């Protein structure tokens, strides 16, 4: 304190250090914001909620469908099949151009361009390129069957009740 | 400078961070995670656990298309356990919806329940209301005053009406939603609505208000869609105190108990103008059937004529009027109707109350002619006078106080519903400026065009005198001075002519319009500050009952004890007053140009 000469460099050094800290803080703030915004923008590209019917839904209790049922649920675009104690939910959206296929005696048939599928949804005729999708079924806690259209499963895998 | 930059950039980071946090770390995610954890510990087999392991928090929604416009209900995003019976004992939001017999849920033999209204088909807001798309509790539930649909019976918005708030919650309010489909009159699940409907008739609400399919009143607002337009707090407030929401309302204050108000609110809230259970075609058919429905025929009409007393009971006349022991506390006593009015007057008044008392608030009811006839005959037949032994004081209490008030201040219990208001008998300046004969005449013959009926047949001449003595001693309390000698013409000296009426109108608009209004209807800009209110000079019955001499007296020398000044002091001479009187008379002439 008694000598200005010795004190000055220390002050300069202090000021330099302070400057560096401030620069570091500014950079941290700005880059941090930029990273957060960039990340948010990428996440926001995918909508969190979509319009239209939800993809996971309840269809009813197993007892509502006697064995041998093959019931097309129009709004949900699935066909619920029961065979003994086995359940399956088969998509009724044609893999060709998206028409609604209807269950028939031999399987499924599309009214638009004549695609035909067998009971398991495999293509047996017409322009369809792929077999019909099967969706995952599970049992909801209230005892109803729950179909999740977000999860496709291997055709032929049934859900046992 | 660098310091400022550093602070600013850190601030930006904080703001960004908080936005980021709000957008990516939601309450509902925590609720769902908690649900998955608890459900896993509750699940009985590996398959259930595996299914839960695959789930991750996301926005869950039900899209309901069946009930009017499409509903998007995201309630189950937080209330994810709503249909999971294992969570019956948990705290909200992870509580399962109770199974209720009143909702039609059935218990099966193995102890499990079956819901009558499946949430996948009905959603949540169909019953509970609220904003189905909201993902934060305050938006979804509608806590804020400006959200249009607060959850029925659960959220009360009005922050400044604290005294009503406890009444606005409860399961009864949910009946409103039941009634959107279950419109049957006595549906077992909606007892509050049935009670409200019954009160709607018992209190004569139907006389003034229209509710589609129920009533045809025209005097008050149409309530067919009240449930859409108003929230329950507004409805409650408007029933308890009609003037708190509409300052000009002349709807009477009904003295209802809180549970009665609640029933009416629930009933009105359920009037939404739509019925989910029927299609437009069905509605059209029922309306057509109503329009072509025929009345009972002459036999039924004859039966009705004999049943006037019963009709008066059925139509709830005593919800407003007093008749013997029953008193609605809103409209005049009709116990002595047969002694006051003749059959023609009563009949005319029934068909259009304003034809004989121009400012009456009584609704024009749409009954059949036979019903009017029956009630007229019954009322005209009520000819029992008051007991001859009653003294002035007892008489006043018995028949006058209802309008003029116990203290003679013109503020009886029904006074606010009468227009013109009952005379303030304690106003000494007025009461001593008119001769006793004038008051006696008003009592005996009534005042035309007002609610003051003629009492001459109801009480004896001596009783009227003793009544006047009582009024003088109890209310006026000072002697009448000797009448001043005023120069007044017996009849209007200015002949009725177009020019005279025109001159009169000029003077009237310039001098009288401030209080009596440019149209002479007594509603001038100053009228609100004046008591008693300025006369409605378009009240034909009243104006025709006043002779020219009294008109000249009131205009030239003023009316003491009221705001009417002596115009002789303000430069009106006899001829001017003659013109004004001609103008007033011309307004009340039938078939005036």
Structure commentary:
By secondary structure, chain A is α+β, with helices and mostly antiparallel strands. Chain A has two domains: 7-46; 56-160, Rieske [2Fe-2S] iron-sulphur domain (Rieske Iron-sulfur Protein, 3-layer Sandwich), CATH 2.102.10. Helices cover 25% and strands 31% of the residues of chain A. Chain A has one helix and eleven strands, in the order αβββββββββββ. In chain A, strand 7 and strand 8 form a beta hairpin. Chain B has 593 residues and is mainly alpha-helical. Chain B has five domains: 24-140, no CATH class; 162-281, Cytochrome c-like domain (Cytochrome Bc1 Complex, Chain D, domain 2, Orthogonal Bundle), CATH 1.10.760; 315-380, Orthogonal Bundle (Cytochrome Bc1 Complex, Chain D, domain 2), CATH 1.10.760.10; 392-476, Orthogonal Bundle (Cytochrome Bc1 Complex, Chain D, domain 2), CATH 1.10.760; 498-587, Cytochrome c-like domain (Cytochrome Bc1 Complex, Chain D, domain 2, Orthogonal Bundle). In chain B, strand 1 and strand 2 (71-73) form a beta hairpin. In chain B, helix 11 (232-240) packs across helix 12, helix 17 (343-351) packs across helix 19 and helix 24 (498-516) packs across helix 27. Chain B is elongated. The termini of chain B are far apart. Chains A and B meet through helix 1 and strand 1 of A and helix 1 and helix 3 of B.
Structure in a nutshell:
The complex is a heterodimer of chains A (161) and B (593). Chain A is an alpha+beta fold and 161 residues long. Chain A is 25% helix and 31% strand.
């Amino acid at each position: 304190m008694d000598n200005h000469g010795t004190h000055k460099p220390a002050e300069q050094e202090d000021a330099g250090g302070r400057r560096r800290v401030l620069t570091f803080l500014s950079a941290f703030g700005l880059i941090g914001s930029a990273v957060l915004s960039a990340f948010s923008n990428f996440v926001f590209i995918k909508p969190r909620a979509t319009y239209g019917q939800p993809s996971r839904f309840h269809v009813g209790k197993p007892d509502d469908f006697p064995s041998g049922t093959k019931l097309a649920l129009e709004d949900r675009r699935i066909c619920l099949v029961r065979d003994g104690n086995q359940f399956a939910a088969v998509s009724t959206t044609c893999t060709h151009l998206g028409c609604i296929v209807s269950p028939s005696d031999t399987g499924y048939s599309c009214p638009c361009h004549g695609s035909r599928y067998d009971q398991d949804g495999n293509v047996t005729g017409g322009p369809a390129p792929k077999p019909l999708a099967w969706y995952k079924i599970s049992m909801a806690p209230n005892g109803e069957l729950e179909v999740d259209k977000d999860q496709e499963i291997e055709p032929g895998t049934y859900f046992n009740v | 400078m660098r310091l400022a930059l550093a602070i600013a950039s850190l601030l930006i980071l904080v703001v960004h961070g908080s936005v980021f946090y709000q957008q990516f770390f939601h309450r509902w995610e925590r609720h769902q995670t908690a649900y998955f954890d608890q459900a896993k510990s509750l699940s009985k087999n590996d398959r259930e656990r595996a299914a839960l392991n695959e789930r991750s928090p996301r926005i869950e929604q039900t899209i309901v298309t069946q009930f009017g416009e499409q509903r998007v209900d995201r309630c189950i995003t937080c209330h994810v356990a709503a249909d999971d019976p294992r969570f019956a004992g948990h705290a909200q939001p992870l509580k399962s919806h109770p199974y209720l017999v009143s909702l039609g849920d059935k218990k099966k033999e193995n102890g499990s329940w079956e819901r009558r209204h499946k949430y996948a088909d009905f959603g949540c807001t169909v019953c509970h209301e609220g904003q189905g798309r909201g993902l934060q509790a305050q938006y979804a539930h509608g806590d804020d005053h400006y959200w249009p649909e607060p959850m029925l019976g659960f959220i009360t918005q009005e922050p400044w009406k604290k005294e009503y708030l406890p009444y606005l919650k409860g399961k009864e309010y949910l009946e409103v939603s039941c009634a959107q489909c279950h419109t049957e009159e006595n549906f077992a699940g909606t007892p509050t609505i049935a009670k409200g409907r019954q009160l709607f008739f018992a209190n004569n609400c139907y006389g003034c208000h229209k509710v589609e399919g129920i009533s045809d009143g025209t005097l008050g607002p149409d309530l067919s869609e009240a449930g859409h337009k108003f929230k329950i707090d507004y409805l409650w407030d408007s029933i308890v105190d009609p003037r708190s929401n509409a300052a000009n309302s002349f709807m009477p204050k009904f003295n209802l108990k809180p549970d009665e108000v609640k029933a009416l609110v629930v009933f009105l809230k359920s009037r939404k103008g739509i019925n989910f259970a029927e299609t437009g075609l069905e509605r059209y058919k029922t309306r057509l059937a109503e329009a072509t429905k025929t009345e009972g025929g002459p036999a039924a009409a004859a039966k009705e004529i004999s049943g006037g007393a019963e009709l008066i009971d059925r139509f709830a006349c005593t919800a407003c009027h007093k008749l013997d022991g029953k008193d609605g506390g809103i409209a005049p006593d009709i116990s002595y109707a047969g002694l006051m009015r003749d059959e023609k007057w009563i009949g005319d008044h029934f068909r259009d109350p304003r034809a004989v008392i121009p400012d009456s608030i009584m609704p024009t009811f749409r009954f059949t002619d036979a019903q009017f006839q029956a009630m007229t005959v019954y009322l005209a037949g009520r000819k029992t006078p008051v007991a001859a032994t009653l003294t002035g004081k007892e008489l006043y209490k018995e028949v006058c106080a209802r309008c003029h008030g116990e203290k003679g201040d013109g503020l009886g219990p029904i006074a606010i519903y009468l227009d013109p208001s009952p005379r303030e008998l304690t106003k000494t300046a007025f009461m001593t400026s008119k001769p006793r004969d004038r008051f006696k005449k008003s009592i005996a013959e009534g005042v035309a065009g007002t609610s003051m009926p003629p009492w001459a047949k109801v009480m004896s001449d001596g009783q009227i005198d003793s009544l006047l003595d009582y009024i003088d001693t109890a209310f006026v309390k000072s002697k009448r001075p000797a009448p001043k000698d005023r120069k007044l013409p017996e009849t209007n000296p200015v002949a009725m002519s177009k020019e005279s009426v025109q001159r009169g109108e000029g003077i009237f608009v310039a001098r009288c319009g401030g209080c009596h209004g440019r149209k002479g209807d007594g509603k001038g800009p100053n009228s609100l500050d004046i008591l008693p209110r300025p006369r409605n000079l378009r009240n034909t019955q009243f104006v025709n009952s006043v002779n020219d001499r009294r008109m000249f007296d009131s205009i030239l020398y003023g009316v003491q004890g009221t705001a009417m000044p002596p115009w002789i002091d303000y430069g009106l001479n006899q001829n001017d007053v003659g013109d004004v009187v001609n103008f007033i008379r011309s307004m009340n002439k039938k078939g005036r140009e």
